[in-house]
Each structure stands twice: as C-alpha cells, then as structure tokens.
C-alpha cells in the first residue's frame, strides 16, 4: 500500500514490480516479477490441492471428496453443455476453472499482517486476455478441424431468410470475434473493481483512525464492518467469475463441436 501525506493509492496494488532480472530475448529484458511469482504460487497451491486429493481411497476423506467434487462439477457442466464429447475437453476447462479460482482467492489472502502484499494476477487484462485467447483458439481449432469450411455456417443461423443473410452473418461474425475480448474483460473488471473498493475503504479506516478517536469510532469502525461484508462478497465474486469463465468457455466449445 502506497501512503503519502495520508493519501492511499488504490492502484499501487496492481503495479507489476521486478523481483530479479532474468535474461534478454530479442532485445527485451525478461524479468521475474511479482505477477510471475504469484502465478507460480497459484500453480503450486493448485498442484498440492490435486496431489493431496488424488489418493483414490475407497472411502474418500474430506480432501479427496473436495477434489472429486470439483472434477465432478466441471465434468457435469461439460456433459450438460456439450454432450458426451464434452468430456474430452474437461481437463482443459477444469484446469482453467481451478487456476482462475485459486488465483482469485489467493489475491484475497490477508498476508498484509506479515508485511507482504497479495497480488491478484487476474486483475491484469494481460493475464485474463491470454486465457481468453487460449480458449478462443481452441474453439477455432476444434471448429475448423471438425467441420472445415462448413464452420462458417455458424454465422448464419438456421431459418435465416436469404435476403437477411449478409446482415445476419456480419452481426454474428462481429459477435463471435468479440467473445475473447468480453471473456477476458469481464474477469479483469470484476477483480479490479473489488480490490480498488477495498483499498479505498481501508484508506478511510486508516485515515479516520489517525485523525482521532472520535473519527475512528464514527467513521473507522462502520467502514471496517463494511469492509468485512465486501470481503465476503469478493470471495463469492472470485468463485462466480471462475465459474462464468469456465461456463462460457464450455458454451463456445459447444458451438465449435455441434455448430448450433
């Protein structure tokens, strides 16, 4: 948190900082940043979660039940949205869902009491945009691999009058091309807005407390209570955004597989 003359900078938490210099590639310096660190930590936590829950015990413990519940949840979603063929894409969508969920929740960790600052990697459009482009690329590969040029029929819904086809095809094409942008932007905006709000409220708590006990009681305590409620809401948003990203990805893959 950047504080100067009683001012709280809500955007400082999103600053990408270099931890150590890496190497040069094509004239560009490749450094290991706080963003890269938290992505590595996210993958590590996710790996430990999966490792501890894949014991395949006949009577599953809580950890194994949690992992099986997550995998079953995504598998059911793929089966519902795509059909039996959707199960071949379950590993990708499950990995996508768990990475986003874990990254979102790790960005909410109260490690500030230890002098650290959590970094929410999904609050950067460069990260969410890459995930969206990856999902969109899979849709294109699957669509053209299965249907060849017939994939373009996706832009002309069944029953469209011939005289409306040029207009409808153009609208459908623009809508299709906007998908990766909207997919990445939705997650980025949701996580960024929530963290900015929490930082602003924390500034109210700190400044009102520093201003005196009267301000602390009248402003700081109610604001702190509001922060607790919004933090709980942010945890819910973190899970919902991961689900929405996975759900939309499965629906887009369905379009490529079944050509609705």
Folded structure, characterized:
- The N and C termini lie far apart (49 Å).
- The protein has a two-stranded antiparallel ribbon. It has a two-stranded antiparallel sheet with strand order 3-4.
- Helix content is 67%, strand content 8%.
- 22% of the residues are buried.
- The protein has helices spanning 34-53, 62-81, 90-106, 125-147, 165-211, 213-258; strands at residues 2-4, 7-9, 18-25, 28-33.
- The protein is globular and about 75 Å long.
- It has one domain.
- By secondary structure, it is mostly helical.
SSE topology:
Blueprint lengths: L1 E3 L2 E3 L8 E8 L2 E6 H20 L8 H20 L8 H17 L18 H23 L17 H47 L1 H46 L2
Antiparallel strand pairs: 1-2, 3-4
Task: Pick out its properties.
6 helices; two-stranded antiparallel sheet; mainly alpha; 8% strand; two-stranded antiparallel ribbon; globular; 260 residues
Summarize the structure.
With 260 residues, the chain is mainly alpha-helical. The protein has 6 helices and 4 strands, in the order E-E-E-E-H-H-H-H-H-H.
Distance between the terminal alpha carbons, to the nearest Å? 49 Å
Rg, alpha carbons: 23 Å
Question: What does the average pLDDT come to?
Answer: 86
Helix content: 55-70%
Contiguous low-pLDDT stretches (5 residues minimum) are 1-5
Give me the side-by-side strand order of the main sheet.
1-2
Order of helices and strands: EEEEHHHHHH
Pairing-aware structural class of the strands and helices?
A: mainly alpha
What is the overall silhouette? globular
- The total domain count is 1
The largest sheet is: 2 strands, antiparallel
DSSP summary, beta strand count = 4
Count of DSSP helices?
Answer: 6
Strand residue percentage? 5-15%
């Amino acid at each position: 948190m950047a504080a100067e003359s009683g001012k709280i900078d809500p955007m400082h938490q999103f600053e990408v900082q270099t931890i150590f210099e890496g190497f040069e590639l094509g004239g560009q310096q490749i450094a290991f940043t706080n963003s890269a660190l938290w992505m590595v930590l996210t993958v590590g936590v996710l790996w430990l979660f999966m490792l501890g829950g894949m014991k395949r015990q006949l009577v599953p413990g809580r950890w194994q039940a949690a992992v099986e519940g997550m995998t079953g949840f995504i598998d059911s979603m793929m089966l519902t949205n795509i059909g039996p063929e959707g199960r071949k894409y379950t590993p990708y969508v499950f990995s996508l869902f768990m990475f986003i969920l874990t990254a979102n929740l790790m960005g909410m960790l109260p490690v500030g009491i230890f002098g650290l600052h959590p970094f929410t990697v999904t609050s950067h459009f460069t990260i969410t945009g890459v995930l969206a482009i990856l999902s969109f690329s899979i849709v294109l590969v699957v669509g053209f691999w299965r249907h060849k040029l017939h994939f373009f029929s996706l832009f002309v819904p069944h029953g469209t009058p011939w005289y409306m086809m040029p207009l409808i095809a153009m609208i459908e094409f623009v809508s299709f091309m906007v998908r990766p942008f909207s997919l990445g932007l939705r997650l980025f905006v949701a996580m960024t807005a929530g963290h900015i709000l929490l930082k602003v409220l924390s500034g109210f708590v700190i400044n009102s407390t520093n201003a005196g006990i009267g301000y602390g009681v009248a402003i700081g305590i109610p604001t702190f209570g509001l922060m607790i409620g919004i933090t709980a809401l942010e945890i819910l948003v973190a899970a919902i955004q991961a689900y929405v990203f996975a759900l939309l990805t499965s629906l887009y893959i369905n379009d490529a597989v079944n050509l609705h």
